Automatic annotation (TrEMBL), chains A, B, C, D, E, F:
UniProt keyword ATP-binding, yes or no: no
Binding sites annotated in the UniProt record for Mn(2+) 2: 66
GO molecular function list: metal ion binding
Keywords, comma-separated and alphabetical: Calcium, Manganese, Metal-binding
Annotated cofactor note: Binds 1 Ca(2+) ion per subunit. Binds 2 manganese ions per subunit.
Cofactor(s) annotated in UniProt: Ca(2+); Mn(2+)
Binding site for Mn(2+) 1: 35, 69, 150, 183
Region (Disordered): 256-299
UniProt-annotated binding residues for Ca(2+): 57, 61, 224, 226
Protein name stated in the entry: Mn-containing catalase
Organism: Streptosporangium subroseum
Amino acid sequence: MFLHTKHLQFESKPEKPDPVYAHKLQELLGGAYGEMTVTMQYLMQGWNCRMSGKYKDLIMDIATEEIGHVEMIATMIARLLEGAPATATTKMAAGDPVMGAVLGGMDLQQAIVSGGGPLLADSNGYPWNGRYIVASGNLLADFRANVAAEAQGRLQTARLYNMTDDPGVRDMLKFNLARDTLHQNLWLKAIEELLEDGLEDVIAPNSLFDEEHAEHASAIWDLSEGTEGTQGGWASGPQPDGRHEFSYLLDPQPLGGVATAPPPDPALYDTYDGAMGEPKGPVLGTETGPLGKLKDKLT
Amino acid sequence: MFLHTKHLQFESKPEKPDPVYAHKLQELLGGAYGEMTVTMQYLMQGWNCRMSGKYKDLIMDIATEEIGHVEMIATMIARLLEGAPATATTKMAAGDPVMGAVLGGMDLQQAIVSGGGPLLADSNGYPWNGRYIVASGNLLADFRANVAAEAQGRLQTARLYNMTDDPGVRDMLKFNLARDTLHQNLWLKAIEELLEDGLEDVIAPNSLFDEEHAEHASAIWDLSEGTEGTQGGWASGPQPDGRHEFSYLLDPQPLGGVATAPPPDPALYDTYDGAMGEPKGPVLGTETGPLGKLKDKLT
Amino acid sequence: MFLHTKHLQFESKPEKPDPVYAHKLQELLGGAYGEMTVTMQYLMQGWNCRMSGKYKDLIMDIATEEIGHVEMIATMIARLLEGAPATATTKMAAGDPVMGAVLGGMDLQQAIVSGGGPLLADSNGYPWNGRYIVASGNLLADFRANVAAEAQGRLQTARLYNMTDDPGVRDMLKFNLARDTLHQNLWLKAIEELLEDGLEDVIAPNSLFDEEHAEHASAIWDLSEGTEGTQGGWASGPQPDGRHEFSYLLDPQPLGGVATAPPPDPALYDTYDGAMGEPKGPVLGTETGPLGKLKDKLT
Amino acid sequence: MFLHTKHLQFESKPEKPDPVYAHKLQELLGGAYGEMTVTMQYLMQGWNCRMSGKYKDLIMDIATEEIGHVEMIATMIARLLEGAPATATTKMAAGDPVMGAVLGGMDLQQAIVSGGGPLLADSNGYPWNGRYIVASGNLLADFRANVAAEAQGRLQTARLYNMTDDPGVRDMLKFNLARDTLHQNLWLKAIEELLEDGLEDVIAPNSLFDEEHAEHASAIWDLSEGTEGTQGGWASGPQPDGRHEFSYLLDPQPLGGVATAPPPDPALYDTYDGAMGEPKGPVLGTETGPLGKLKDKLT
Amino acid sequence: MFLHTKHLQFESKPEKPDPVYAHKLQELLGGAYGEMTVTMQYLMQGWNCRMSGKYKDLIMDIATEEIGHVEMIATMIARLLEGAPATATTKMAAGDPVMGAVLGGMDLQQAIVSGGGPLLADSNGYPWNGRYIVASGNLLADFRANVAAEAQGRLQTARLYNMTDDPGVRDMLKFNLARDTLHQNLWLKAIEELLEDGLEDVIAPNSLFDEEHAEHASAIWDLSEGTEGTQGGWASGPQPDGRHEFSYLLDPQPLGGVATAPPPDPALYDTYDGAMGEPKGPVLGTETGPLGKLKDKLT
Amino acid sequence: MFLHTKHLQFESKPEKPDPVYAHKLQELLGGAYGEMTVTMQYLMQGWNCRMSGKYKDLIMDIATEEIGHVEMIATMIARLLEGAPATATTKMAAGDPVMGAVLGGMDLQQAIVSGGGPLLADSNGYPWNGRYIVASGNLLADFRANVAAEAQGRLQTARLYNMTDDPGVRDMLKFNLARDTLHQNLWLKAIEELLEDGLEDVIAPNSLFDEEHAEHASAIWDLSEGTEGTQGGWASGPQPDGRHEFSYLLDPQPLGGVATAPPPDPALYDTYDGAMGEPKGPVLGTETGPLGKLKDKLT
């Protein structure tokens, strides 16, 4: 269960309105790496976490913080839109270059749909959606996604930092940048700890190493012209997991047969000249199951 | 420019058809962490790479390999669908439990839309889309996303490995597992090398450290009940970036003011009682620009 | 079956072209509360209506009108785009502020994709989709959605009314505003009539009142800081349905246990330390069904 | 800023796992009228609310509660999935009708993607998205959408109540049903209060009545065959807003001209025979603006 | 403006309910090539048509018919769902294989969301959306899309025809198949007529032939291994447009330079070693425009 | 398996950067008829092709070429963005009309998300998705979709050609125009050859002519006011398939019964007055199947 305070985690107040910047800031609210994504990603990871204790508590701490970040950005956008020429006409835009520039840069739906408020969408107007998040139940795989999300988040925040010189906006972004720095460090540290605790190892998931074709876990295939890739540390030597050696396959040849699709079911009307014969029937291997016996009895 | 060979990178041939498994395998083709995602993610990263040399060549090598993985999964799906009871009626499904189980587990569009072939969609029928990929231009941030994608990819492949006992399907998945192991190692190694080459550092982007509010880059806020989080290595001590110390803020108080939205433009018809006065006009600071002078002249 | 007349329900002719406004008007065509939504919402409600008679006939009357509204907006957009500088270059935009303002405000796809015509998308270019509509079969629930849709529709129309001073555009919007007024009144009246006819009551659906936990149908939980909410009419007294009393729970405490997720299936590779033991198997309760007997026999 | 307690608002514990029901319950989590929608709808309405006081506090109270409902449903889904035959093969499904029925009814991504946990998607696997919510700034229009959302939510909950007989699941749903009853009453009461406070009236927005074509705010057009609609209370008499009378137009004739699209820009290559002449140029009305004067000067 | 009759264009009545088939039939209602697509595609083409006369009238005739086809399929789905075990429990499905097969094959949202009615979605539950349609203004390009849509539509209808033996359902599909046959012939004929009328030619658009690099309009590049393609009629001889000859380029070599991305803006934090120098500034060519003069004056 | 060369198929180098044009060019990369669509459409058609030989080889040749077109457009976009004022402030835009025009026309995500590179999205920022492609297995139906796609592609390219005068951009577009011309001719020729080879006929699929209601394959129904349609060649005479005659039905009457939905399941809470009685139960016709016998035995 959640509780809400009226105060923002950090101040979110522009010195002056700037409706064009309000448009850009949508990326940090509803973009693929915006605050909605980390909020829901961490909440779902926390609820899906299979152990009580430090990991779950940490995830829920950060998740709960991120809801407050959505609140900060949403509030900032509404304030940046104060006094925006939202209902100005084309004539007004065409007759005054300053207004033309502002109107050309605004998000139309912030006026028409939200009445001067934020949208749950990114800076191109595309709505945030649930396929952006990952909560797989495997903490190593998920924490890596978290590091990646915080890295993209800080990168976009840094770009947006350079797109404004409003001291109030920058003050909030300086807080966000610092939190993104901390959170990158945090998930990196949590990954270390998963390994120290023996819960996971370098490769996710930490399993099926005996089953996988180990002979294909070494060589990078040189499938794009040029061999500059061989100058990297990945061209030879031990791999980070300590299990494998790197190598570079410079003249790669396909190992599989020719790619073909089987004869089609005639009732699907695929174009087919019959050259490959009839399709085989599905063999579902129920010969020994109880229904197999049942069928024998009844037919 | 690309060239295509007829042969698959690795054999992709089931021993027996299995239309239910063909449904599940869609996740590896068109899911958020399937082969389409890594293909387009790496291609776009390669085309967007700002340096010639080892990194770009490596990215393009792996990207080109991944197109071939899309081909392998697509071919496997078509072969698993051979002889599927695609046009069976409800009566047939209801009258035979084996067929009922198979029909209930099939992807309807693999029959109706693709005529017994694969879709560019995931195992819930949702189409692959371009917001799944990331190619930010910052190689550290992107390589982290690549590690994360390969980790999720191997995890899903491992889960799918346990959902079949067909030797042919498993043979292909053993190859995929090995490649996902290699690619995790690879991107981890490439991240190390970015740091060794001095191109990036632990935090992405490697910049704005003087601007960000450093005092907020240390403390995890205990916003979710319970203090088990303080038992982690992230509760104190140096952070992975070597710049900051970890700490835990156990009684967090909001630092910002009350969250409020400003007085609205009356022409937008937001509900408002006028208590906060009139909205201020946007102040765009053009007083000293050339248009400012122009306006002065003309008005 | 439908028939079409060549004439528009109401005139839809701008005095002058205005390609920027054509962009904004997309919201009324393909937005979440645009004409496409009410068209398809009402059609699907009508086809899904379980009674012949006045309700179904009414729904189909309004639904059929709304197709004509899509036609009106689509026609208006095409006319607003007449003579638009659709193929002007960046140089032309940069060299002439009037053209710059116009080009900056245009919808790129109206030119590139539609050749100077409307799109089935909203003012941010996002396509209309079938998840926008609701046709649940419960007329009370659906008519409420209709009132809500007409209210949002009139609100957006009013905002757009203030964004133009073209007499022709305004003439059409004056018609649309009036229809949205009528349709709000209409669905409100139809809700009244559902109650008078004894088909529904205040709460949708009008059922399961004995089953629901009635003790939790009274109190608003004060989960957000501040008690201003208690100054509202919802703080005490009878509820609109006449069945319940309002109250305000000022010190809410959670009623449930700790949120945890169960031990995972090892074959899914979730991170887990085993502390919670093994997962229990699914218990599907078929012990007494015919298959249960069958299994007993066969095994 | 938000805080989180470990305890659920209400218990969310099934007596027995049921992976098929876990699939259905996704609708209440990530469907268009599920808990994610009301959570984000109310949060955005609260942040976009233009007045401090009772309305804003109420909205934030309910919004904060709804985050906890997402948590309850997410926890329930994970628990329903305990021990699910997530990695069973097609052979196992085909060989045992009970398992076949269970596997055929499961959500594939709950296993492959989430490792036995919930998704941010509906019961057809479609991800939740930000276009589902409405936060227009007009409280009347938005509260109506809230009533509608709670009505659809209670309706779907009631349907799902009948799809299970698990006492634990039903216990939670009985709480949800009661909250949905309360919340319908609540938003209905809040609408009443908006009118009593003089902030809004029956029609949203409460404006532009002098501008709209009042003569078209009365008549329902009989555009669908049959006159049963005239038997309703909407056929005559005063409208709920007290401003208009209802009437029924039984022989409706279009009021507008023929729908036509204007001559196209030749550079867009629309098919056109020239019969309508040349397109007129856009007339943006800047003749008297400062740029008009500027152009005169410079050319 | 549109009118509606109560009667269906053609009977749409199943002999018996079949809820599994109701799921499959969603493809014809809301799929990419279902009735919603042709309805909206033709309506938008008609409204966007730049000539009065036979083409526009034809498009509107067919478009209006297609709305009635949406109605037919929607009605059929509701009728197929009569008596569906929509609220049956998992226990019931697991305990009775017939019910298990039926429940496993049903569309969950047809019960939970629509109350036993159709959805605006395809057979995998994905909502219909406005990006499915094309209405470019160029009739040749659009009529080709129409032929393609009718071909896919008839193909899917034929596949679905084989998935039922209900005489009532088949009776309706026989009508649909016939209409799809007619409509394919129709759009093919209309393409012929566009050429006869001199409005279009073989290639769309019928323009820019002098500008395009004619030397690259002949040769198919043999970029995929194997030369079987040269056995086709497209390997040599005149092309259908009468302007070009076919040829096959068997040893294709790239004509362009190496693919590289330019030096990045430092404020975007792309990874870059500086090897390519500084980015050049944008050159927008306004030196001679009025603003150029203006700038000169004012600075 | 695929291989990659470093060189582009054709040069893709603008004379000068133009960030506004980079925005427009997104349509050719990630639009519904852009290069991503034809790439994935042809690849999936090739992998789904049911015959070895000339058709499959041709499809794969063109498919492989199209990946290289994605590369060309992606490279062009990155180069057009060189030196773009990506991080300029609103003040800078408002203070300088040239910069205002440029910033107003840029794609915000090309800066914030991609760091000056391309997106997998169209010119309105909507991501490319897998529902755009068609690969049905029926080559006639698919080749028609290919002709249609190349026609729309050339049309959009032609429109974009007129939106730039940069010689480098135009040089690339001249190549693209020529390829689109060739590919239209190519798929038209391949359709001819399918007929000559006896694999398909005029109507897709070439089947079910005896089953379809042939009496409804002739007449166009005059459902939209006006009879100009009868002036077309489709009003009478033989149809292109040689099987049918065209006719025009000038006074069309519906052939079906009244559209109604059946009595609902009470547990779904649809609004219903009981006038139509009880719903009938599903009749699944298993009376003679093995389970029918089993049930008889066990009950």
